[in-house]
Amino acid sequence: MTRSPKAESDPWQRFLGPLLSNDTGTDAEWMSQVSLMALAQASRWRHLAPVRTTLEATAAALQRLDPRLEQTLFGCRFSNPVGLAAGFDKNAVAAGIWQVFGFGFAELGTVTALAQPGNPRPRLFRLAAEQAALNRMGFNNRGAAAVEATLQAQQLPPPGQRPLVLGINLGKSKLTPLERAASDYAVSLERLAPYADYIVINVSSPNTPGLRELQEETLLRQLVERLRGQQGCPPLLVKIAPDLADEAIDSLARLAYAEGLAAVIATNTSLDRFELSGRRLVQSGRTLAEESGGLSGAPLRRRALEVLRRLRATAGPQLPLIGVGGIDSPEVAWERIAAGASLVQLYTGWIYQGPELVPRILDGLVLQLERHRLPHLSAAVGCGLPWQDD
Ligand SMILES: Cc1cc2nc3c(=O)[nH]c(=O)nc-3n(C[C@H](O)[C@H](O)[C@H](O)COP(=O)(O)O)c2cc1C
Asked: Is 353 near ligand 1, meaning CB less than 6 Å away?
């Protein structure tokens, strides 16, 4: 990783950069767990003076408030288009403080109806040279009832009155057979709907056997109709895999449009190894072709963009799209928005680049609006205009 003078002054890069710049600096899962434990305490005690002061100082450094970046989509008011992707805060422990990091929205989960431990460790691997990660976590989470209790304990304002939009991403419990998937999602929805601005039907994780079969048109339609019929169901979104064939993407886009889904999120991690099949994991000595799990980060970028473009071409501009996969700079975020994403999400890029990435992207987007003489972000969505340096 090359380090700019700016990176030297960024505490994340200065302290964690050396640990993140190789595959075994520290165990990747352990590092996220420790950070999350600290964030959980901060969220729980955010109203106490010393915690509040620290959070306010962080927010002052990372938040960007600009009316040109605000959008209202599927009834939710987003203060900016950059969100935290699902999988980082699986148990919603830091739901009360994600806005402090400058995010306009955060997606909590994936939550399943039943608590489950996920796959055996190690199950998360850094591929530092490629700015990528391989994970086969397998929906480790405390289950919908415990997540409900966690959200309740944080005493969040109700949906619509919070400083950021909170989505909750739902998956199928591993023990539940595919034929009973709809009931499994429905149990989680019933518990968590009161806390969610939007709900995501996750049918695209590669680490739950059979889950991706739910992307098939008939099964997905049944699932959507079952959940939508439930009382108090928030706007419903679907998150899709990057490994779908073009025809499957087209049928999904048509289904989303016809069923009135609020948006489609593209994409989850990939089973494809792109050009990295022969890359060995330091921890196991095995190649990526031999290891199971989903690939995220920079190698996924091109495919995630292709899927987004295809969705846009089939569904048209009426269906909001959320772009995720390999976004790690203002240029890449702009490219995704110009290709049709109204919102973008970060995961792997945020880990490598650190919290400074969010304001860097937001500043970059505002600059591009000015350079292209666009009055508002919504005018940039699907505009097809390239990043302009000056
Ligand atoms: C460690 C890890 C865990 C993840 N867990 C989930 C999850 O529980 N649910 C989900 O929908 N996506 C999950 N994802 C996928 C991300 O939300 C995102 O779609 C994907 O990583 C592509 O974005 P990125 O390249 O910015 O990481 C996970 C990704 C990683 C790296």
From this structure: no
How many angstroms separate the alpha carbon of residue 256 from the centre of ligand 1?
A: 21
- pLDDT tens profile 258-295: 999 999 999 999 999 999 999 999 989 999 999 999 99
| Cα(48) to centroid(ligand 1), Å | 32
Q: Give me the percent of the chain exceeding a pLDDT of 90.
A: 89
Tokens of 349: 């890029």
Alpha helices by DSSP H, listed for the chain, are 5-9, 11, 17-20, 28-44, 49-62, 144-153, 181-192, 217-228, 246-258, 301-315, 330-338, 348-353, 357-371, 377-380
Are 173 and 331 in contact by the 8 Å Cβ rule? The answer is no
For atom 23 of ligand 1, the residue with the nearest CA is 325
Homologous superfamily (CATH) of 5-380 is Aldolase class I (3.20.20.70)
pTM over 0.85: yes
Handedness of CA 210, 214, 219, 224 (dihedral sign): positive
Say if CB 110 and CB 101 are below 8 A apart.
no
Edge-to-edge order in the sheet of strand 294-297: 124-127, 132-135, 294-297
What residue's CA is closest to ligand 1, atom 3?
87
Measured from the CA of 328, which atom of ligand 1 is nearest? 26
Catalytic pick from 205, 270, 296, 378? 205
Mutate to test the pocket of ligand 1, among 269, 270, 300, 346 (most ligand atoms within 8 A of CB): 269
